[in-house]
Specification:
Elements (H helix, E strand, L loop, with lengths): L18 H11 L2 H14 L3 E3 L4 H5 L2 H4 L27 H7 L29 H11 L4 H12 L11 H8 L3 H11 L12 H11 L6 H8 L1 H5 L3 H8 L3 H12 L21 E6 L2 E6 L7 E3 L1 H8 L6 H38 L1 H6 L9 H8 L3 H7 L4 E4 L2 E4 L7 E3 L5 E3 H13 L9 H10 L6 H10 L5 H4 L4
Parallel strand pairs: 2-5
Antiparallel strand pairs: 1-4, 2-3, 5-6, 7-8
Helix pairs in contact: 1-16, 6-7, 7-9, 10-11, 13-14, 16-18, 18-19, 21-22
């Protein structure tokens, strides 16, 4: 069969992702804070956009009137400069004004006395990190210059929990000194505050803390050195037989070990708590739930009247200026339209969620129903991907508390009566069962399965294990408390 080149016409349909469509999709999945940042950035870059209340004059002008073609024959020279009244300028005492005005805000000379001066603590910009704290101690130490180089490398390889993330061999390769010098400097850094810092594992971390407490010869240190596995699995009787001590002594040592800090670096560099502002509110009025969008903090965007008049023909502009204004105007109109569409979509999705999860809003998490994106998408006649984007990083304030919109979408677990219950409800029941158990004899996963079966929930043991781990709850052995 001979190969040849031919021209062939083909008709096909495809979705083209225009920049405007990409922007609309991006705005749809942004969180509230991210959206506010995008709007502020657009206000700075686009001169056609401005923030403020809409006037009746703005509402009567349609988009077709704004984007009308610019009449020919107009040029920039025909636009008159607006001149203000200058008669009152000479009446201002400029010398006194400039002397009393500070471009840099409050300065050291602007405070009348020391009582009005803010404290230095209020001028700090950030909390000291673990690395900053260790480097400060290094500067106060008596280490030699080459030892400081090694110590700086060690500090740079300590994670946020306070553990050294590289081996001695890797440090030797990085700093170029022998292992003996590196071990000596590492021992010096391990005596810095907080106790246990720069340890390579949990065992070394706890032993260093006991060493600084001068308890290296205590039974607690012996347990950490020789019976760490038994201690983790709470096999206290095996520890007592191995060390030939009483069970009460083992209990006392284990209780003291539990008071030590397994993460010595966690107290430094913690970020401030970020409070979540809900995107939407759900209020209960009589027997109905009212959905209200949270527009607080979002700028009210509108088209600048000067550029609106420039395109409508009341002002004369040249061709290039007109094209520039039209381009910026199209971007501004699309941004306003995309934000309004985003708000409408969030409102419709929340209304649909309230309809499907009415029992949750009335009686709490235990009555949460199974729900998937397809249910809401079919209800509001939108695509599942749109619902997925809308529910990402969006929060709703309800009578039951603050929840992410994705919280209401979860799989179902079959019940013995043939119905189904939401997986979040099952997690809540597992958490309640564990919180009410006897800590000396905690429930096994199989026992939790039997308890849930008695409540009408048919669930496998491996599913209980999965949900328990998702809740951050340990196994029955890890939850057991003998003292």
């Amino acid at each position: 069969m001979a190969l040849e080149i031919r021209q062939q016409l083909k008709l096909s349909q495809q979705l083209v992702m225009t920049p405007q469509l990409q922007q609309a999709i991006k705005l749809l999945q942004l969180s509230r804070m991210e959206l506010m940042d995008v709007v502020r950035e657009e206000l700075e870059e686009n001169p056609v956009l401005e923030e403020g209340q809409e006037s009746p004059e703005d509402k009567t002008t349609t988009e077709e009137e704004i984007t009308a073609d610019i009449p020919d024959g107009q040029n920039q020279e025909d636009v008159k400069e607006v001149e203000g009244e200058r008669d009152g300028m000479a009446d201002i005492d400029w010398k006194t004004y400039l002397e009393s005005y500070s471009l840099g805000g409050s300065t050291a000379d602007s405070y009348e006395d020391d009582e009005d001066r803010p404290s230095y603590e209020n001028l700090l910009t950030k909390k000291p990190s673990l690395s900053d704290h260790l480097l400060w101690q290094l500067n106060l130490s008596h280490l030699e210059s080459h030892e400081r180089v090694i110590a700086s490398e060690i500090i740079g390889n300590i994670d946020d929990d306070g553990y050294l993330q590289v081996s001695v061999e890797e440090l030797v390769a990085q700093v170029g000194y022998d292992s003996e010098h590196v071990e000596q400097v590492l021992a010096a850094v391990q005596h810095f505050d907080p106790p246990g810092v720069a340890s390579r594992n949990l065992q070394e971390c706890l032993l260093k803390q006991l060493e600084q407490l001068e308890m290296s010869g205590d039974i607690a240190a012996t347990i950490l050195r020789e019976n760490l596995d038994e201690l983790e699995n709470r096999r206290y009787q095996a520890i007592a037989r191995s060390l030939q001590v009483s069970l009460d002594e083992v209990f006392a040592a284990a209780k003291f070990i539990s008071s030590l800090d397994p993460r010595p670096g966690s107290q430094y560099g913690q970020e401030d708590v970020h409070y979540i502002t809900p995107d939407i509110f759900v209020y209960k009025v009589s027997d109905e739930y009212i959905v209200v969008l949270n527009d607080e903090g979002l700028p009210n965007l509108r088209i600048n009247s000067f550029y609106r008049n420039a395109l409508s023909g009341s002002a004369q502009v040249d061709e290039k200026a007109g094209e520039y204004i039209q381009e910026k105007l199209r971007g501004a109109l699309w941004l306003i339209k995309s934000i309004h569409q985003r708000q409408r979509t969030i409102y419709r999705v929340t209304k649909s969620i309230v309809k499907f999860q009415r029992d949750f809003f009335d009686r709490g998490v235990a009555h949460l129903k199974p729900l998937v994106l397809r249910d809401v998408a079919e209800d509001i006649e939108m695509h599942e991907s749109t619902v997925s984007r809308v529910t990402t990083n969006k929060y709703v304030q309800t009578p039951q508390g603050l929840f992410e919109l994705k919280y209401f979408f979860n799989s179902g677990i079959n019940t013995t009566e043939g119905d189904s219950v939401a997986s979040e409800s099952v997690k809540s029941k597992i958490k309640e069962i564990i919180s009410a158990e006897n800590t000396r004899k905690p429930y096994s996963d199989q026992k939790i399965v039997e308890i849930l079966h008695g409540q009408g929930i048919d669930i496998a043991r491996r599913t209980v294990t999965k949900y328990r781990e998702m809740l951050g709850v340990g196994s029955s052995t890890q939850r057991k408390r003998l003292f």
